[in-house]
Amino acid sequence: MPTAYVLLNSDLGSDESIINEVKQILADADVTYEVQGVYGVYDIVLKLSSDDAEKLRSIITNKIRKITKVQSTLTMMVIEEQENL
Predict the structure, then answer these.
(1) Distance, CA of 36 to CA of 7 (rounded, Å)
(2) Segment holding 77, helix H or strand E
(3) Which one of 15, 45, 53, 57 is at 20 to 30 Å from 2 when CA atoms are compared?
């Protein structure tokens, strides 16, 4: 199953509002997700899974990356052939 990890940097103090907006975006998107605020270089970690890799790319590019107060993202797509090793 296509899976992506998205690391987000946000404006100071905006983590909760971004997490809530991510949840709203993904509620109707027919994807499985986990989202967590974290300490470190990045502020939020998002894991997305879907049967359609193109759907994941579209959501990340057209919705997640365009959330106000998201400064930058780093997306890592899982190598599907290695998932079951």
Answers:
(1) 10
(2) strand 70-77
(3) 15
AA letter at 82: Q
Amino acid at 5: Y
Q: Which two tokens stand for residue 2?
A: 């296509």
Q: Which class for 5: exposed (0-12), middle (13-18), buried (19 or more C-beta within 10 A)?
A: middle
Among residues 52, 53, 13, 16, the alpha carbon closest in space to that of 35 is found at 16
Alpha-carbon gap, residue 31 to 84, rounded angstroms: 20
The per-residue pLDDT for 28 is 86
pLDDT tens profile 26-76: 998 889 999 999 999 999 999 999 999 999 999 999 999 999 999 999 999
Is the pTM here over 0.85, yes or no?
yes
